[in-house]
Input
Amino acid sequence: SIYRDDEFHKESVSFVNDELEASVSYGTFEIFFKGPELKISSIEAYTNIEMWKASEVILPEKLLNGDLKVCGIDRDDTVSLGLDPLYTYDTSSKRLHVKLSTDEAEQNVQIAPHLIIGLYKNGLTDIYILDLKFE
Output
């Protein structure tokens, strides 16, 4: 996983049935949702860092606070959108920007201290991971 914030989602981690999970994949980039309300639980990416563009990552100015839930898919289901994301990494600020769409975000939501999601209509456009650490 390149991102996991179980501390922020305590209510998502403590549900009874651990099998309630769904995911949405953009090529080799996958977002997992868990719990009764299918809230975001983790992000996995199978990518080569050498393929990432090195550039300054500027964060959106107007941020809402909220949560990300998946709607319109069944539990234990994976939806593949067949798109390959574009990665931009800022080495000085340790920010990763994952562009998932050609659309520009209408809203940007900070769903955890180190995670911002860009939204357009009913879809994801961007993911910003702040203070990214490699293990």
